[in-house]
Amino acid sequence: MVEFSQILDARETIAGSVPETPVFSSTQLGERLGVSLWLKAELFQKTGSFKPRGALNRLRNTSRADLDRGLITVSAGNHAQGLAWAARMVGAACTVVMPARASQTKAAAARGYGAEVVLHGTIAEAFAMAAELQREKGYLLVHAFDDPLIIAGQGTIGLEIVEQVPEVDVIVCPIGGGGLISGIALAAKSLIPHIRVYGVEPEGASALRQSWDRGEVVHLEAVNTIADGLAAPMAGQITYPMTRKYLDDIALVSDDEIAAGVRAVMAYAKLYAEPAGAAATAALLAGRIPVKPGETVVSVVSGGNLDFDKLQSILSMGKAFEE
Q: Among the three residues 141, 174, 207, which one is the final residue of a domain in this structure?
């Protein structure tokens, strides 16, 4: 388990390199829900998502000898960029293994930050490839979410939310492998014990929800969702018990509902969120999160790395929210 003190340490570690991100009120969407709605805009973070927080905290707490081994990770895109950026900050070589069908824009961005990008198979096959390369080359594996220092770095978002919206009653956050929400929930509930924290997963990539239901960590054979940033095929050995301890529930949303969330965040909040980034707001709009009239709700917009071609398909998907 990660401790609250580790999140406070992480804030000091990344200060000056990773900026605080703003929150924006969304009056029109809030009125639809009967709440005061705020959007935590992590899409304005370095590399376009929250990932540099954990990555830089991890690397600045890693010995020079380990950094010099070279780093390797698996990512659908945002962690690839975040780790590549952090590796450049500390002067380390970085290899990222991404699924063959990963966003070309995200792959190009990771290369732009200096990473060697290997495109290989499905997300599960990418994990196998990374393990093979790690054995062959002696690389240091930097896990995308199941690492205490990664989780502590992401938890700095929870500190910011409580400081920026001190009256917050509910936080809603997307879930990939669970590192983001584990850190946020630990930070927020350490400061405001009565706060409620809800996670959101796509129906086609619900590893943590299924793990909760079965009472053990579940590995999915396949994932299928437009939210590639939430397509982790398993829950973490650390994030599973942390979410059981700190989360109030996990909701599932369909791809059509996620697409409606992207459109709503874009139309009403003027934020260019990717599907993973809009998933929390999508769950609120779809009625998946139990909020009470008049409550103050913060929805985490975790990233904005959205390809134009994917945007075109999202704009043409089911219009459930607008109708």
A: 141
Tell me, yes or no, if 302 is annotated catalytic. yes
Express each pLDDT in 155-202 by its tens digit: 999 999 999 999 999 999 999 999 999 999 999 999 999 999 999 999
User: The domain containing residue 64 runs over which residues?
Assistant: 52-141
Q: Is the pTM of this model over 0.90?
A: yes
> Same structural domain for residues 111 and 232?
no
Q: What is the CATH number of the domain that holds 130?
A: 3.40.50.1100
Nearest to 2 by CA among 154, 111, 169: 154
Q: Which of 122, 141, 160 is the last residue of a domain?
A: 141
Q: Are residues 212 and 311 in the same domain?
A: yes
- Marked catalytic residue, from 40, 46, 49, 51: 51
Per the CB < 8 A criterion, the answer to whether 269 and 277 are in contact is no
234 token code pair: 């398993």
Under 8 Å between Cβ of 99 and 122: yes
Number of domains in the chain: 2
The catalytic position among 75, 103, 211, 302 is 302
Q: Is residue 51 among the annotated active site residues?
A: yes
If asked whether residues 306 and 159 sit together in one domain, one would say yes
**Residue whose tokens read 């134009």:** 308
SS3 for 13-68 is HHCCCCCCCCEEECHHHHHHHCCEEEEEEHHHCHHHECHHHHHHHHHHCCCHHHHC
- State the residue for tokens 């000898």: 65
Q: Which of 187, 191, 185, 159 is nearest to 246 (CA)?
A: 185
